[in-house]
Amino acid sequence: MSIEQLESIAQAMVAPGKGIIAIDESSGTIKKRFDVVGIDNSEENRRAYRELLLTAPGLADHISGAILYDETLRQSTRAGKPFTEVMHAAGILPGIKVDMGPQPLAGFPGEVVTEGLDGLRQRLAEYARLGARFAKWRAVIHIGEDTPSSTCIEANNHALARYAALCQEAGLVPVVEPEVLMDGDHDIDVCYEVTEAVLRSLFASLYEHNVMLEGSILKASMVIAGKDCDEQATAHLNAMNQLGPHPWPLSFSYGRAMQQAALKLWAKDMQGNFAAAQKTVAQRARANGLAALGQWTRGT
């Protein structure tokens, strides 16, 4: 795929008033979400929940793409239509999470490095054949008394750059996510300093690996103090966009912030509340779409 095609996909992903919904939880992670609301973690329930999200009427008005899990990329609607076909027909780009999660970084207690490069070239080729148009890799950076170390930052960003280069080779737009965690009691100034160091290192690595920035997406963390909550994410996005115009689109890629209310509603009556839960998802998508334009107000 040419750089022009990759750039076109990347631009579509951050179209004005649109963003990405993240439904890439592993089977183990979604079990934790289901357990909270009393839903059995069966393959059929996972499939039905993803269908609820992906076929919500009006979703495409504010959602440009969805990050899927390997299982979801291969699943279909109850009527037998592959999710990827449903998404393409609606104008929603299918994406796929490809990292294998963080593992302890040897020699650096308390720090982690994301793994998953082994066999990635082959997996990306298969995902492209299945209809994916972009991929996501998440690095995890902890802020602590003596962390993050420069070794941790460089190891994670080296992996992100290698992943991004492989994505573009396969014709997929890479979403690079160096997540600086909000856990801890650090203030906003420390968060800023760490985030700046991480991003400088990341873009140096991307440059060294010949990653075409026009055909990639940066999924950055918000620079804030302490922990955040889902509802504040929309308000923060709106506030940042009201400070514009910016040199680049400032969109969103949210998971629980868009899904939690719908999941709770669906769990109460999985048949009777299906349509109502879909309406809730569409409403959250609309709120974040407005925030991406700096036009959101509480209650909209």
Task: Describe the secondary-structure layout.
Blueprint: H1 3-13, E1 19-23, H2 27-37, H3 43-54, E2 63-68, H4 70-73, H5 83-90, E3 93-97, E4 102-104, E5 112-114, H6 120-129, E6 134-141, H7 150-169, E7 173-180, H8 188-208, E8 217-218, H9 230-242, E9 253-254, H10 256-268, H11 274-291
Helix pairs in contact: 7-8, 9-11, 10-11
Provide a short characterization of the protein structure.
Helix content is 47%, strand content 14%. The chain has 11 helices and 9 strands.
Attribute tags:
single chain; 300 residues; alpha/beta; TIM Barrel; 2 domains; seven-stranded parallel beta sheet; two-stranded antiparallel sheet; 47% helix
What would you say the CATH architecture of the largest domain is?
A: Alpha-Beta Barrel
Q: What do we call the CATH homologous superfamily of the largest domain?
A: Aldolase class I
Number of helices: 11
CATH level-1 class of the largest domain: Alpha Beta
End-to-end span in angstroms? 40 Å
Could you please describe the fold and organization of this structure?
With 300 residues, the protein is an alpha/beta fold. The chain has 2 domains: 17-81 and 90-97 and 252-295, no CATH class; 98-227, TIM Barrel (Alpha-Beta Barrel), CATH 3.20.20.70. The chain is globular. It has a 7-stranded parallel sheet. A two-stranded antiparallel sheet has the order 4-5. The chain has helices at residues 3-13, 27-37, 43-54, 70-73, 83-90, 120-129, 150-169, 188-208, 230-242, 256-268, 274-291, and strands spanning 19-23, 63-68, 93-97, 102-104, 112-114, 134-141, 173-180, 217-218, 253-254. Helix 9 (230-242) packs parallel to helix 11 (274-291). The chain is built from 11 helices and 9 strands. It starts with a helix and ends in a 9-residue tail after the last helix. A hairpin with a 7-residue loop joins strand 4 and strand 5.
